[in-house]
Each structure stands twice: as C-alpha cells, then as structure tokens.
Amino acid sequence: MNIAFFLVPKDQVVYLSPHSTVRQALERMEYHRYSAVPLIDEQGRYAGTITEGDLLWKLKRSPEIGFEHAHKLQLKDVPQHMAIHPVRIDQQMQDLITLATRQNYVPVIDDSEVFIGIIRRSEIIDYCFKLWQSEQKN
Fold first, then answer.
1. I need a surface site. Which of 23, 38, 94, 120 has the fewest CB within 10 A?
2. What mean pLDDT is predicted for residues 102-119?
3. Contact 119/125 with Cβ under 8 angstroms?
4. Is 46 helix (H, G, I), strand (E, B) or coil?
5. Which tens digits make up the pLDDT trace of 93-102?
6. Are 108 and 7 in contact (CB under 8 A)?
7. Are strands 105-109 and 87-88 parallel, antiparallel or unpaired?
8. Is 17 left (phi over 0), alpha (psi -120 to 50) or beta?
9. Which residue in 45, 44, 46 sits closest to 36, CA to CA?
10. Rounded distance, CA 21 to CA 112, Å?
11. Mind listing the pLDDT tens digit for each residue in 12-21?
C-alpha cells in the first residue's frame, strides 16, 4: 500500500521553526494539546521534533531561564532527546509501521528532503487492525 494514502499534508500540520522560541512552542503545544511538534527549517526541510520532555529538561537544567524568559531561547538551542525519524513518500508500509512503534507520528519527506506532512500512528494502527479483521473473516 502507498503510504501517501495516510498523509496529513503540511498545511494541516502544526509545526515550528528551529528559530521559534521555547515560549512559542509551549503555547502552541498547550493550545493544540500536542506533546511533540515537528521543526521545519527555512528551506522547508524536516529538522527534527521538539517534545514536551525536551522543553521541560531544558527549563529544569537552566533555572536562570525560567518561563518568564522562555521567549529569549530558540528551539535550535534545545537538545532533542528522541530521534523522530522521517520516511520518504515512496517508502513501503513496513518501514512506516516499524517507525510508528516508537513514534506518535512519522514525518514524511520528498526526494529533496522537504517536509510534506505526517502520518499519525493511530491511522497506521487502524489500517493494521482492519487488515487483521479482513484476514480473520477469510
């Protein structure tokens, strides 16, 4: 199956720039109730994923920053503790399933490494469940 079938396109994805601030990330994540947000650079390429944990650890280890100064710290200066790996749009479903076992979503890039969207783990699980159900009926 073509993984493009599951794609949530970039224009429907909440993402940030590595030059966004910690405060912007916290506010956007709180508003959308997300625990992780992809980072997209100036060229439109996937630059990693920032998680609530990354932000929390940075603030914990930098008490001089605190929330009141979170607008001064850019996301590019926050270490990412989880490597959220992307897939290319032409990869196989097996590659996608393997990544989804460890990630809430899988970023999707094109041949030029430009971010084109995400595939949510819930969609992959739903697909696998329906496939399993159809095999059970046969």
1. 94
2. 93
3. no
4. strand
5. 888 888 888 8
6. yes
7. parallel
8. beta
9. 46
10. 27
11. 999 999 999 9
Structure tokens at 11: 């224009």
Secondary structure of residue 48 in the 3-state scheme: strand
CB atoms < 10 A from the CB of 113, how many?
12
Whether 62 contacts 77, CB under 8 Å: no
- For residue 87, list its beta bridge partners: 108
Q: How far apart are CA 43 and CA 77, in angstroms?
A: 19
Q: pTM above 0.70?
A: yes
- What is the distance between the alpha carbons of residues 129 and 43, in angstroms, rounded to a whole number? 37
pLDDT in tens, 25-84: 999 999 999 999 999 999 999 999 999 999 999 999 988 887 888 899 999 999 999 889
| Helix extents (H) in the chain | 22-32, 52-61, 93-100, 121-137
Helix (H, G, I), strand (E, B) or coil at 18: coil
Q: Tell whether the torsion through CA atoms of 55, 101, 18 and 31 is positive or negative.
A: negative
